[in-house]
Write a structure and sequence with these properties.
Blueprint (H helix, E strand, L loop, with lengths): L2 H11 L4 H8 L2 H17 L3 H10 L10 H14 L5 E2 L5 E3 L21 E3 L3 H19 L7 E10 L13 E12 L5 H20 L9 E8 L6 H15 L4 E4 L13 E8 L5 E10 L1 H6 L4 E9 H8 L1 H6 L1
Parallel strand pairs: 1-4, 6-7
Antiparallel strand pairs: 2-3, 4-5, 5-10, 6-8, 8-9, 9-10
Helix pairs in contact: 7-8
Length: about 325
């Protein structure tokens, strides 16, 4: 919200310091109680006809265009391919206020905030990171030098509040399959390279196996971007690309030093996985990289974390043989 708009709201309310009062002079629980009463009264005045009108025009509340069985099939396949050392968990629809803004370069206005000091999950990997940090903290209490890794996975419908009018095909809410691996620095870049191979190998296998569900792709391309001025390019080639190519011959692996997205969000190394459908169109399907989130949560610079995610609705809509025939 722009400053002129805020100034107008405060001026028309007759309270010049309204924002400061609400933010700085009210305790979070008092603000919550105030807003709950405000929205209780507003909800009581909503007429059924108004509710239907809002439902029909509000992009956040409209159902997905895909049938639930389609997404369930992809989830079932993903769970069957998930290595046994990963734990699949079902996330809450909500997470603590600031889950995105406090550790990531995400403005709070891009998140659907509730009046109960929570927010609707906008990125499952942020919440997986919190759960990883919680589990790592228990391990560190028992052994401050623990290198035991926490590996979590979730498939969750996320909501993004930013305006997407200029980006056709981008949805305000969609299903996201996310992976998160947390641990401790193991030296020699060992945690980083092995975690990258684990994440990428899972997604590559999933992209190949979805053919049994009717989602065809001609080629899978993996790109790695070293965010430390190319200092580890040789290590990434020998310890990430080489084992990936041994497991999955035929994929294309490339270093991408020119990638701009994710800089400032990821730290060290990030990756993309692309696939090409039967029409020859290549799409970016998977994004991932290392973050400093567990370092911040646990105040421990030795902590390491890799996150990644696949938008399953993008996969289903762009790679379905049925959708290609319909076009």
């Amino acid at each position: 919200m722009s400053d002129p708009m805020l100034e107008r709201i405060q001026r028309e309310a007759g309270i010049p310091e309204l924002i400061d009062v609400l933010v700085e002079r009210l305790a979070p629980t008092d603000l919550q109680s105030l807003l709950l009463e405000v929205y209780r009264r507003r909800a009581a005045s909503v007429q059924p006809s108004q509710l239907l009108e809002r439902y029909e025009r509000d992009r956040f509340v409209r159902p997905s265009a895909l049938a639930p069985g389609v997404l369930a099939d992809v989830d079932r396949l993903a769970w069957s391919l998930l290595p046994g050392y990963y734990a699949a968990i079902e996330l809450s629809p909500l997470c603590p206020l600031g889950t995105n803004a406090s550790v990531a370069t995400v403005d709070q206005n891009k998140v659907v905030t509730t009046i109960r000091n929570t927010e609707v999950v906008a990125d499952a990997t942020n919440v997986l990171a919190l759960e990883c940090a919680s589990r790592r903290r228990l391990l560190l209490r028992r052994n401050p030098q623990s290198q035991e890794r926490i590996r979590l996975c979730a498939s969750h419908r996320v909501v993004r509040a930013q305006a997407y009018q200029a980006a056709p095909g981008v949805l305000p809410h969609f299903r996201l399959l996310g992976l998160c691996t947390a641990g401790r620095d193991e030296g020699s870049f060992q945690f980083e390279t092995t975690s990258l191979v684990e994440h990428i190998a899972f997604y590559v296998r999933l992209l190949r196996e979805v053919s049994q569900l009717g989602y065809q792709n001609r080629r899978v391309r993996v790109t790695l971007t070293n965010l430390e001025n190319g200092q580890r390019d040789q290590t990434l080639t020998s310890q990430v690309f080489k084992p990936l190519l041994a497991q999955h011959p035929g994929i294309l692996c490339e270093l991408d030093p020119d990638r701009e997205t994710g800089r400032g969000y990821y730290a060290g190394v990030c990756f993309h996985i692309y696939a090409t459908n039967d029409t020859g169109t290549e799409s970016e399907l998977i994004d991932g990289g290392f973050t400093t989130w567990t370092q911040q949560f646990l105040s421990n610079r030795k902590e390491r974390m890799l996150i990644s995610g696949l938008g399953t609705e993008r996969l289903c809509s762009q790679f379905s043989a049925l959708s290609v025939e319909a076009d």
